[in-house]
């Protein structure tokens, strides 16, 4: 069975995340994917808390767990003003554009021969050790578990939605089966790697201005979607389907 398991690349962009890195590594080490099937890549940008130095210090432990480790330093010159929350509407377009650039840069630098890419945000604090096997068993190309802060609580990752943004995963609970999504979040996102190779990326610009799947009207800017939500619209334009798992929860750190 081990020989049949595809190779997996875990990708995580990080910024001012030093406090989250130990738990992130602990969860990666706990995965039941064998070392020879697992790679990892992390990109740090614009941190002021020693995140990159902490990543470099963790390299030996990561190399002991993964067959390949890629650590990237790439600054974009963007920091949120002090005491302004990261979801402040005035900064969303610029913040998400830089996050999209970071995701794409990490993808292009780290992806080699792996079969699947597993995007995991650094502040996701719990998911099952057999996460990969459970996602593979679904035989779907793009899959997004339900990210919450408390078990059974409301959806944390509101970037995953359908019906022009009118329904999130919280509204889709109870089916026990995957549901179709028009947009995804990046907290935990499983993507067949060849889709990335075929051009599926995270748009660092407003994508899908005229898409019937986009939010109408958009709550934060004048049309289109960006980053993970733009990824969902781009997948749709490529003839692909994104899927959500409302009844399969992963947990995010409290904000």
Architecture blueprint of SSEs:
Layout (H helix, E strand, L loop, with lengths): L7 E7 L6 H10 L7 E7 L6 H15 L2 E6 L18 H19 L5 E5 L3 E3 L4 H6 L5 E7 L12 E2 L4 E2 L10 E3 L6 E5 H5 L29 H11 L4 E11 L3
Parallel strand pairs: 1-2, 1-4, 2-3, 6-11
Antiparallel strand pairs: 4-10, 5-11, 6-10, 7-8, 9-11
What does this structure look like?
The chain has 255 residues and is an alpha/beta fold. The chain has a single domain (8-252), classed as Alpha-Beta Complex (Spore Coat Polysaccharide Biosynthesis Protein SpsA, Chain A). The chain has helices at 21-30, 51-65, 92-110, 131-136, 193-197, 227-237, and strands spanning 8-14, 38-44, 68-73, 116-120, 124-126, 142-148, 161-162, 167-168, 179-181, 188-192, 242-252. Strands 1, 2, 3, 4, 5, 6, 9, 10 and 11 form a nine-stranded mixed sheet that branches. A two-stranded antiparallel ribbon has the order 7-8. Strand 2, helix 2 and strand 3 (68-73) form a beta-alpha-beta unit. The longest helix is centred in the middle third of the chain and has 19 residues, at 92-110. It starts with 7 loop residues before the first strand and ends with a strand. The relative contact order is 0.17.
């Amino acid at each position: 069975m081990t020989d049949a398991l595809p190779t997996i690349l875990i990708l995580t962009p990080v910024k001012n995340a030093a406090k989250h890195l130990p738990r992130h590594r602990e969860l990666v080490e706990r995965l039941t994917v064998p070392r020879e099937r697992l790679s990892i890549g992390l990109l740090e940008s614009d941190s002021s808390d020693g995140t990159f130095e902490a990543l470099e210090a963790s390299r030996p432990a990561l190399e002991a767990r993964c067959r390949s480790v890629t650590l990237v330093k790439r600054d974009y010159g963007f920091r949120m003003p002090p005491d302004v929350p990261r979801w402040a509407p005035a900064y969303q377009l610029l913040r998400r554009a830089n996050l999209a650039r970071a995701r794409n840069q990490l993808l292009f630098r780290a992806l080699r021969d792996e079969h699947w890419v597993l995007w995991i945000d650094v502040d996701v604090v719990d998911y099952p050790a057999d996460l990969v096997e459970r996602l593979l068993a679904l035989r779907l190309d793009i899959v997004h578990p339900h990210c919450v802060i408390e078990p059974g609580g409301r959806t944390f990752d509101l970037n995953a939605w359908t019906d022009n943004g009118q329904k999130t995963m919280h509204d889709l609970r109870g089916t026990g089966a995957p549901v179709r999504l028009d947009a995804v979040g990046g907290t935990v996102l499983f993507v067949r790697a060849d889709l990335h190779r075929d051009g599926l990326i995270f748009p660092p610009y407003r994508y899908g201005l005229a898409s019937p799947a986009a939010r109408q009207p958009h709550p934060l800017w004048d049309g289109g979607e960006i980053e993970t939500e733009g990824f969902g619209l781009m997948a749709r334009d490529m003839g692909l389907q994104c899927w959500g798992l409302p009844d399969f929860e992963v947990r995010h750190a409290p904000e």
